[in-house]
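hi support,

uploading two proteins for the ticket. first:
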Amino acid sequence: MKSVLAERKTFHPQDIEQRELPTAAGRAVRELAREICSALDSHTGGTAQMARTLTAPEILEQIDGRAGELPDDVRIAMRPPATTAGATIVSRLPLTDEEFGPTPPTWHDAAAWSGEPARRASSFHLDIVMLLLARSAGEPFGWHGQQGGRLVNNILPSPGHETEQSGASSATLLSPHTEDAFHPHRANLLVLACLRNPDRVGTTVSSVRHTELTAAQRKLLSSPTLPILPDVSYGRGHERHTATPLPTLWHTESSGGTEDLTIRYDPAYTPLDDADAEFRSAYARLTAELERVCVTAALTPGQMLLVDNDVAVHGRVPFTARYDGTDRWLKRVNVRLPERRRRAAEADENGYGQQIVAPFRSDRAAPLATGGAVPNRAGAGRGPATAGAERDTADDRGPIERP
């Protein structure tokens, strides 16, 4: 499915919320991660096997049981974005470009390196850091078919994927999108942490609450008209599932304005040609507005971008990958905010058979419901660390992903 977005390299920046991890809090996160790694090594004689997915019971117990030991400043910094921009930059996570070695050529290599004793002190250690931070925000989860079910994903350019609409691309604009927009159990919050970005490649964020649409356009886009299909990274097999029409926009209250507007948007995988001219016109206006209000965040090592996946869409500007070990490298974690409720109708969606890996989920069977998108977090260190999946069948997911 083609994207309706132009490959624009210039954007209209707006202010974005800025936070900092206090020095003591950043140090505490890294020190706790080191303690957990040491405890795991002592208990198992090595973490290489567990590093594959980070879902071994020993790791889950350590993360869930000890995240609550972190200073309150960590949880304050990692709370969901507090402004209508739907995004926040958190700075001063203590790390340096030099400690991680070269940027891997693929996520497979990044995952393999995290299990090597010589690299464990940096790569695997930072994966534990990411889970501690994400657990402070809510409930980290992954996808069975994404990067081998790993809870922490590596986002980096890969040879042969330069022009795809995926996180492994580089030479093309990665169109703004809701992460995993096709699925009812998509993340409420994305955490993107920068390890390396020497070319200052920008991540783009656009808030639906900054857009200007007419009441008639919002009404059209709030009607379940077209499905959103799984993107290229999910491989084949989704065709056997019913494609359910979804609303692009909806209100969490009854205001009718933009202050409580939420979004589910992925134009590259929405069959717009199947809609009538009036709907396509409203969708085109939304697309233009999301471009108009776009913010570009060029992350530096130690910075994290928190994206409210219910309010903001995100993408990436084009860049030229060198594949020499110095390219942009991010870590990503999907986070569920258990106190945030979605539309009741989403409970009936099939999710195209995609399963989630939800070891920290406190209530796997909780129904979706209409209600406000409340910016609350899960309590770190509370609730059982039980692994589970949301659907009965799973498709093969490809070797690439959307950031």
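and the second one:
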Amino acid sequence: MPKMNPALRGRFNHDLTSIAPSNIRTFDAEVSSIKGIVKLTLGEPDFNVPTALKNAAIQAIEGNDSHYTPSVGTAVLREAIAHFLSDRYDLTYDPATEIAVTVGATEAIFASFEALLNPGDKVIIPTPTFPLYETVVQMLGATPVLVDTSATDFVLTPALLEETLVKEGPVKALLLNYPSNPTGVTYDATQLQDLAAVIEPTDLFVIADEIYSELIYSGHHASIATYLPGQTLVLNGASKSHAMTGYRIGFVAGPAELMKVVSMVHSMLVTSPSNPAMAAAVPAFGSEEGRQATLTMKQAYQERRDFMLQALSQAGFKVASPNGAFYLFAKLPTKFGQDDEAFATALAKEGAVAVIPGSFFGPGGEGYLRLSYATSMDNLKLAASRIQDFVASH
């Protein structure tokens, strides 16, 4: 096996030197080898891809749909996405110029930030949140401004946003992820309108990662693009709503002038998404079968959420109000203090349940655990029993 020439050391991209591997993936890998462990770690739906979607992919393969498509995705998929956004959220986008299909929401995040950021630009990121946003901003030589929302029920309030803008001076963009990974907390229409009132007079870009928008348990998801259409990029995809994580289909929607730049970056990153995956996503976003499949999954997630809420409460945890996604963000019982990583490590080794330390999600996550309930009820019942026993025995 070749060894790198020692003279090349230190000649890598300097913006990567401060970036460590994902704590979430690293911790998950470390505890996965424990015999009999129940994993509530990753945001991976446990459902199979709905049959109509699989059949669409098979038909594309058998029909020899194997050639280059437009970089922004097939016209029929962009039309389905436009229908999805209009039908669910009253958002109107031109599929020809205002929508780009990406290789998952992860590529959508990178392409959007790459299109907007110059070295030294500042991006406001409310925390706790998925660590990828901070990492991408750092990779691009920009500066993440992490705003702890734990004192405001894990919601960025207008007052907190105004305070941050005054304190930080010129800021290029605001990242909003809701329903939230890791808290499951989301924003209602009034909260978004109040934030929009602060943002509208500014030249802030808003990147709204709404990948969990279809998994709202009470009420309906509202997009901040409703109130700030000229300043917002909406990110979404099929991974969470249709259990299509391996198909890697995401999208970005926004004003045509802005999407021209995002689409250019996207085309240089990946050329275009996979044809069979795009074919499967057409009925996901554009058919009644796709909609009903999501509703079936959502009902199961809600039952699991309610079960785990009660089980954790009985064990002495306090849980953030999770009205979306499939995570619970649980405050450690008082007797365990704030060391969430030590608790999660001990729970894995002694209690055979794997969860993610809340501190991995940035300021405000200390003393919490993130538990994913995207697994079977049998697994959740076993995990709940083990967690309750572990807490009682310490």
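thanks. also noticed: The first strand starts at residue 38 and ends at 39.
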